[in-house]
């Protein structure tokens, strides 16, 4: 009679550890104590486990569901790169990714799939209505946005948008910019926090915010063009326009070019949320992060939650990096 094959699940049951811990111990990965590693090896010898040269194949029964709104899933500049990082890191840890693109976040969710999942990832603030479905599931969760309210009961991971925007604005102020404008919506929590960071930097200086072009004022491109044209005639142009994203900075550049305004000679421009892994056609002075590594970081902390469900609820903030380019200049710099 053929001997039953010993699996990672068998070793996990024998040792009282999670399958994740057993896998890391056998792979020699960091984060596993020598005592745990020896415990796993002893169990392997007792059970007759034979380690293959390659990592154990991923079981279709071990998957993580990632819920993402349809609009975000179609954004190649951010979420698609994050998803690549999520999938890559899950595969390293022997899980498959089940990406679920949801049009109506409060309706189209398969409860059975969530119930059987090893863990759940929520992508962006528009996915938060689905969190209410988790009651009773007791699943490890990672929410990739800001917590929607105080004492939110799940782990969250996001960028330090307010801090990053504050530092970027402080740098621009140190370069002599005192008349600062802001361009971009503030309907997303991340963008609102970027404006808050700019406001904080300005408040603690002798600079001032001379214009805010966001959706509350509902500025179309034509409206911004008209106002900038008037300011140009009156000599009241801001020296710097800080944009909520690189995409808005790019659209603003077309408006300024149409007005015959040179960048950065007449006006400096900053973006935000650049991808450090990708070379942009127009590299803006900006704050950026590796979006793939953002996805990897989310999975890294999710694996800790799977292994240690008793951990305190965590708030994880990733710091962006500043990138200075030729879209900004010091006002002390001579114009050629």
Q: Could you describe the 3D structure shown?
A:
With about 325 residues, the chain is of the alpha/beta class. Helix content is about 40%, strand content about 20%. The protein contains 11 helices and 13 strands. It has helices spanning about 10-15, 20-25, 35-45, 70-75, 80-90, 110-115, 160-175, 190-205, 220-235, 245-260, 290-305; strands spanning about 65-70, 95-100, 120-125, 140-145, 155-160, 180-185, 210-215, 240-245, 270, 275, 285-290, 315-320, 320-325. A 6-stranded parallel sheet has the order 2-1-3-4-5-12. The longest helix is centred in the C-terminal third of the chain and has 17 residues, at about 290-305. Mean pLDDT is about 85; it is low at about 55-60.
H/E series: HHHEHHEHEEEHEHEHEHEEEHEE
Count of alpha and pi helical runs: 11
pLDDT averaged residue by residue: 87
Q: Strand pairing plus helix content: what structural class?
A: alpha/beta
Low-confidence stretches: 53-60
- Record the strand order, biggest sheet: 2-1-3-4-5-12
Shape: elongated
Helix content: 25-40%
Q: Distance between the terminal alpha carbons, to the nearest Å?
A: 86 Å
Question: Strands, helices and their partners?
Answer:
Elements: H1 8-15, H2 19-27, H3 34-47, E1 63-69, H4 70-73, H5 79-92, E2 96-102, H6 111-116, E3 119-123, E4 141-144, E5 155-159, H7 161-174, E6 179-183, H8 189-203, E7 208-213, H9 221-234, E8 240-243, H10 246-258, E9 268-270, E10 274-275, E11 286-289, H11 291-307, E12 315-318, E13 321-323
Parallel strand pairs: 1-2, 1-3, 3-4, 4-5, 5-12, 6-7, 6-8, 8-9, 10-11
Antiparallel strand pairs: 11-13
Helix pairs in contact: 1-2, 1-3, 2-3, 5-11, 7-8, 9-10
């Amino acid at each position: 009679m053929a001997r039953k094959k010993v699996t990672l699940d068998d070793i996990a049951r024998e040792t009282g550890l999670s399958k994740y811990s057993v896998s890391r111990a056998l792979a020699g990965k960091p984060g596993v104590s020598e005592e745990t590693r020896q415990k796993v090896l002893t169990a392997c010898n007792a059970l007759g486990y034979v380690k293959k040269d390659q990592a154990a194949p991923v079981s279709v029964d071990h998957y993580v569901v990632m819920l993402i709104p349809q609009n975000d899933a179609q954004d190649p500049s951010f979420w698609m790169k994050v998803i690549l990082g999520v999938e890559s890191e899950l595969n390293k840890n022997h899980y498959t990714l089940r990406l679920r693109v949801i049009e109506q976040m409060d309706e189209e969710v398969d409860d059975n799939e969530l119930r059987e999942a090893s863990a759940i990832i929520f992508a962006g603030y528009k996915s938060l209505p689905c969190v209410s479905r988790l009651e009773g599931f007791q699943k490890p969760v990672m929410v990739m946005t800001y917590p929607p309210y105080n004492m939110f009961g799940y782990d969250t991971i996001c960028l330090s948008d307010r801090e990053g925007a504050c530092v970027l604005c402080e740098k621009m102020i140190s370069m002599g910019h005192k008349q600062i404008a802001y361009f971009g919506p503030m309907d997303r929590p991340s963008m609102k926090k970027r404006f808050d960071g700019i406001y904080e930097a300005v408040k603690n200086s002798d600079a001032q915010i001379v214009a805010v072009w966001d959706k509350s004022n509902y500025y179309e491109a034509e409206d911004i063009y008209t106002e900038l044209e008037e300011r140009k005639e009156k000599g009241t142009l801001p020296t710097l326009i800080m944009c909520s994203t690189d995409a808005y900075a790019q659209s603003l550049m077309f408006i300024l070019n149409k007005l015959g305004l040179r960048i950065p000679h007449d006006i400096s421009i900053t973006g935000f949320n650049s991808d450090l892994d990708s070379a942009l056609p127009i590299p803006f002075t900006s704050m950026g992060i590796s979006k793939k590594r953002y996805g990897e970081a989310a999975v890294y902390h999710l694996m800790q939650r799977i292994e240690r469900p008793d951990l305190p609820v965590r708030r994880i903030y990733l710091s962006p990096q500043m990138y200075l380019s030729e879209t900004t200049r010091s006002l002390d710099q001579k114009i050629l």
